[in-house]
Structures are given as structure tokens and as C-alpha cells.
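Quick one - inputs below.
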Amino acid sequence: EAQVTQNPRYLITVTGKKLTVTCSQNMNHEYMSWYRQDPGLGLRQIYYSMNVEVTDKGDVPEGYKVSRKEKRNFPLILESPSPNQTSLYFCASSPYIGEVYEQYFGPGTRLTVT
Amino acid sequence: KNQVEQSPQSLIILEGKNCTLQCNYTVSPFSNLRWYKQDTGRGPVSLTIMTFSENTKSNGRYTATLDADTKQSSLHITASQLSDSASYICVVSAGYSGGGADGLTFGKGTHLIIQP
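Output:
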């Protein structure tokens, strides 16, 4: 089954404790992206990657890191989480960057930083 | 600045009724417009994608329209079902890729509740 998976789905952590949220897709998509979703603000892009070893900042990259060592994986790293990073996070992938492309979202990771 | 405005913010209708959600955008240059359905706590799922040349597109009971001249789109839901309760997000893609992220501008969504 074609899908984007994220782990963990739920995470409660404390300020300053490094964490990684994994994202994996099995569709051989070149493009992957991370979003956060907060009430009243909608989806905002954190980072994106157009292919292996190619990453770039989205609209709200502060406090986050990413890597793209393999095509299928795109982990999101919070080196020193803070309470303002409490949010619902989504990973997404799409087959190519072009005029029209289908974007597939993962199930989401709900992160709480205390 | 590219913007996507959706209305209403929330809507409650009775099961079986029809409804229409609105999306106005100021995105330039325009490439395509998407409607997503997002169930609570889940990832968005694509309903329709329309390019400049398309003014209507259907997906089952969902019909999206696009007026590129007035920069407006609507999503019409026919004979609503309880499972239609969700947020509906309008997303507009600018006519470029890369720079400025992937050129996608997201609306904040309309929260739809279907009551039995």
C-alpha cells in the first residue's frame, strides 16, 4: 500500500531534550516536506527536500533540522525543543515538482513540549 | 504576499443537506488550486486539483469550481453525510517550483460539522 508513515504518532517531552520524528514513504517520491499545524494558523511549511541531499527552509524553520540521506526517509530533528514547538506535525511527499502534482500526507505526529 | 482566504470558518448543517465552501486567493502567478479534506487528527487527503483551464471538477459528491478571473473557488458538497464532518482546506500553487518553498499557499480551512 502506498503511504507516508510517521513515528511516533504521539510524543510528550521536556524542554531541551533532543528528539527526532521519522518520516518514510514507499512511493519513490523525490519531494518531501514537513509541516506544522496550529489552531487558527493552518498548515505551515518547516522544511522541504527536492531530492537526496537537497533540503531547504520553508516558512517556519527556526528550531528544526532535517536530513535526506535516503530517498524514502526525511526525519525532522528538534535539537532543543521548546514549548512553542508543541504542535501537530505532518510529513508529506509528492512524485515530482511540476505544474500539477499530488501531495500525500502522513498521519501526523502530535508533539507536546513541557 | 500570496494569500488564501476561506469562508466560512465553520459551518454546521444537517445530514442530507448541501453546502458550499468558499476560497478566495491572491496568488501570483497561478498554477493550480487544490481542495483537501482533513479529518480530525489526521493528515489532509486530496479531493480535487484544478489548473487554470479547468473551471469544474468533481469527485463523487464533491464538486469544485474555479473562476481564475475573480480568483475564487468553491467546494460544493451534495447530500452531506456524517462522514463529511471534517476540515476542508483550500491550497493554491504558484506557477513556480522551489524558491519560496514549493509555492503552495494554504488556507486556514473551513470546519464542517454534519449533524444527524
